[in-house]
Every structure is written in C-alpha cells, then in structure tokens.
Amino acid sequence: MKGFGFIQRDDGQPDAFVHISAVERAGMATLNEGDKLEFELEVDRRGKYAAVNLSAAS
User: Fold this and answer.
1) Count of Cβ atoms closer than 10 Å to residue 36 Cβ
2) pLDDT, tens digit only, all 58 positions of the chain
3) Going by C-beta distance under 8 Å and a sequence separation of 6 or more, which residues neighbour residue 2?
4) Which residue range or ranges hold the CSD domain (predicted)?
5) Rounded distance between C-alpha atoms, residue 31 and residue 2, angstroms
6) What is the 3-state secondary structure (H, E, C) of the chain?
7) How far is residue 21 CA from its own chain's centroid?
8) What is the CA radius of gyration of the chain?
9) Dihedrals phi, psi of 45, to nearest 5 degrees
10) CB 28: neighbour CB atoms within 10 A?
11) What is the pTM of this model?
C-alpha cells in the first residue's frame, strides 16, 4: 500500500528496506507478510541496507 516496506533478515541483522520498484523488477505484484525471499543487499549513501534482485525462496 505504501510502496515500500522492510524485510526481516534471517541472520539477525537489521531489517532491509525494500521499495515497490524492486518488487516489480522481480516480476512480483506484491509482497505479503511471511513471504520467504532471496535477495541481495545494497548499501545506500546513508549506510542503510536495501533489498535488491528479489526472488521467491525455494
């Protein structure tokens, strides 16, 4: 709804920001709470982590 959200990481590190554009580039319409994903992390200029190159976890 907001166009962005956060993904809880399995490694216990801080959540990763995800923007709707990354979701759409992955060919997904939406994400739902509890969805399992594979993704890469990108660090922005503020030092925050963003999830990119998303795919459904197998």
Assistant:
1) 9
2) 688 999 999 999 989 999 999 999 999 988 889 999 999 999 988 888 899 999 999 8
3) none
4) 1-56
5) 12
6) CCCEEEECCCCCCCCEEEEHHHHHHCCCCCCCCCCCEEEEEEECCCCCEEEEEEEECC
7) 10
8) 11
9) -65, -15
10) 15
11) 0.81
Query: How many CB atoms are located within 10 Å of the residue 4 CB?
Result: 13
- How many Å is the maximal CA-CA distance in the chain? 32
- How far is Cα 33 from Cα 7, in angstroms, rounded to an integer? 9
- Cα 12 to Cα 4, 15, 16, 19, 55: the distances in Å are 21, 8, 11, 21, 20
Structure-token pair, residue 52: 């990119």
